[in-house]
Amino acid sequence: MLMNLRIKITTILYFLPLLFSNEPGLKNFIRFAKRLLFFLSKMKDNKYVQTGQGLKINLYVPAFPSLAFFQACRKVMEFKEKMPAVTVLMSVTAACRFNCKHCYQKLDKGKDVDIQLLIQTARYLQDKGMGFFNIEGGEPFLVFERLQKLVESIDKRSEILINSTGDGITPERLMILNKNGNLSGIMFSLHTYESQQLNEFMGSADAWTTLERGIEACHQVKVPVMFNSCLSRDDYYNGTFERVMEKARSFGAVLIQMIKPKPAGGWLESGADNFTIQDLALIRGKMIGYNNLKAFKQYPAIAPMIIDEDREHFGCTAGGTDRFYINAKGDVQPCEFLNISFGNIATEPFEQIYERMRATFVTPGDCWLCEKYSSTIAVLFREYHLTSLPLPPDLSEKITTGMEQGNTPEFYEKVVKI
User: Fold this and answer.
1) Confidence bin at 279 (pLDDT 50/70/90)
2) SS (H, E, C) the chain
């Protein structure tokens, strides 16, 4: 692909001046170039889409050739220590006027953390190489002042994506949030193609109209529209998946993230749909087809969780291997779907919590930990008569001690040897 060639050449030329400095040296520069090429080879089934920031090759990779893209590339330039994480999901509030059945924050109760602590954490992470900030709530636009302060503290070394139901979005607010020029888009929820079904799923008679208003505001000021979609197993057999893709296309979306239902939050006790190996193979084929076949050229790119997190790609990169989560009350979690905590930034310096978490998640695995340990988390939640999640650090240790993460995924297994 010519675009891949352009990305490779441009990126290597961008970093070429490092050859004339002490970082990283000729030998390691060659290793960096090989690692970069290896990473790009993992993007072969992705559809590249143009946004205001540039070319998106993967949901969590900043657009090429932005400053944030080159910041993220530095991940594979680390040769002495563990490679840095490049993605963080931060929640600015638990407030939300909807009641989604699957919400992984449904049992997260507590006061929103001081926004200055989130800002300090964001600045620290930028200096450590964080290339992608995914900001959410609850509904972040309900606390617009908090959202604005956090967004404005993140400079162009990082790309920002905001998750929203659409509640509180206006064109004027979007323009304010894009003042630094690094807002890559707004990601809405589209769990069905039909308005009444979405209203029922999100627990509000206004969910669909709120969604439409938010999308229209984005289009008015040319902020890219993206979606996430959490579909059941049956939805991939009864035509719902195809209809959701058609609706996403009609809404003018550039990208849609397909999320596998997770046994977390609202579904922690009941569990989520079981997908067989055959189911996953069928779904994988559908998604690759939409990304690559000419017949689907006008459809949004699909960011498929089941492919990105499989053994042949990156596996589960929770715990700061590549990504992690900070909830609205300040708990540092390995992932938004894994309801355990390594500490809270309101009571302990973030740096200490972060390093402790990364030391636990030394290497990624191909085990989907949120699914493997959800029943244990549910048992502890009931046994200790807790009223909120995530589990506190002392109980979380019962999960992380002896935690089995599976085999190292192909990318991380090979990239450290290059």
Assistant:
1) very high
2) CHHHHHHHHHHHHHHHHHHHCCCCCHHHHHHHHHHHHHHHHCCCCCCCEEECCEEECCCCCCCECCHHHHHHHHHHHCCCCCCCCCEEEEECCCCCCCCCCCCCCCCCCCCCCCHHHHHHHHHHHHHCCCCEEEEECCCHHHHHHHHHHHHHCCCCCCEEEEECCCCCCCHHHHHHHCCCCCEEEEEEECCCCCHHHHHHHHCCCCHHHHHHHHHHHHHHCCCCEEEEEECCCHHHCCCHHHHHHHHHHHCCCCEEEEECCCCCHHHCCCCCCCCCHHHHHHHHHHHHHHHHCHHHCCCCEEEEHHHHCCCCCCCECCCCCCEEEECCCCEEECECCECECCCECCCCCHHHHHHHHHHHCCCCECCCHHHHCHHHHHHHHHHCCCCCCCECHHHHHHHHCCCCCCCCCHHHHHHCCC
The model's pTM is 0.96
Is 285 a residue whose pLDDT tops 90? yes
How confident is the model at residue 152, as a pLDDT? 97
- Residue 56, C-beta contacts closer than 8 angstroms, at least 6 positions apart: 48, 49, 50, 63, 184, 254, 255, 301
Are the C-beta atoms of residues 324 and 89 closer than 8 Å to each other? yes
Rounded to an integer, the average pLDDT of 149-171 is 97
Would you place residue 370 in the very low, low, confident or very high pLDDT band (cuts 50, 70, 90)? Answer: very high
pLDDT of residue 52: 84
Nearest to 260 by CA among 168, 335, 341: 335
How far apart CA 369 and CA 364 sit, in angstroms, is 10
Cα distance between residue 199 and residue 252, in whole Å = 21
